[in-house]
Amino acid sequence: MDEFEGLKREVERLLDMVDSENSDCEEKIAIQEEVGDLPSSSVAVEFLEDEIDRKEEILLAASCTLLNMISGLDHSFDGNERDMGRLQVEEFRAACLGHKVLVNETEEQTFERADLIRTLWQKKILDSVRLAYLQGEKEMPFRPYDQTELEALKTDSGEKVYRLVRKGFREARVAVRTSVDFKPWDLEEGRECTLSELLDQLQALIRGRIRRHA
C-alpha cells in the first residue's frame, strides 16, 4: 500500500466531515477549535501533515532518548546514512526519477536536478540547526522554512521529494532537542531502527544482564 494512502483517506474523511450538515459533530468541533474553519482541502492537508510530523517526532525523540540512556543499544556504525537531518542522495534521485519535469528528461538530467534540489534544502536544514545552536536554543522552530517554498517544491518536484525534505527538518528538530546526532540503526537490515525494535533490544539486554548475575 502506498505510504500516503492513509493520509489521503484521512483528508477525505476530514473534508467530508467539515462539509457535513451535522455541524454538532464532536470531532468537527474539536478540529475547528484547533485550526479554525477549514476553507480548502490544502488547509486540511497542511494541518494533518503537521500532526503526522509531530507524532513522528515523538517516536524518534523517544528512540534517541533510549540511545542516550543505554549505550548498549547503539552500534559502532557511523555512516552518513545515520546523520539526523541528512538528505540522502540516492533517495532524492529515486524520488526525482518518479517525477520527471520533462517528458524527454534523461536520467543524467534527472540526477542533476535531484542533486541541486537536495543541496538547496540540505543547506536550509543545516542553517536552521546552526542558528538554534548559535542562539543557545534547545528547540528549533516547528517551521524554520518558508511554507510557500516547500509547497512549491511539492508542486514542482512531487510528493516524495517533499516528504523527504519534511523528514529532514523533522530529524533536525529532534537532533537539536535530544542532542543525538545519529539515528537508531539496524546493522543487519542496513536501515533505521524503529522504536519498537529498540524496545525489543532493550528487553534482550536486560534479560542478558539478569542471566549473567543469576
Automatic annotation (TrEMBL):
InterPro entries: FDM1-5/IDN2_XH. Residues 82-206 form the Factor of DNA methylation 1-5/IDN2 domain. It comes from the Eukaryota. This is At1g80970. It comes from Arabidopsis thaliana (Mouse-ear cress).
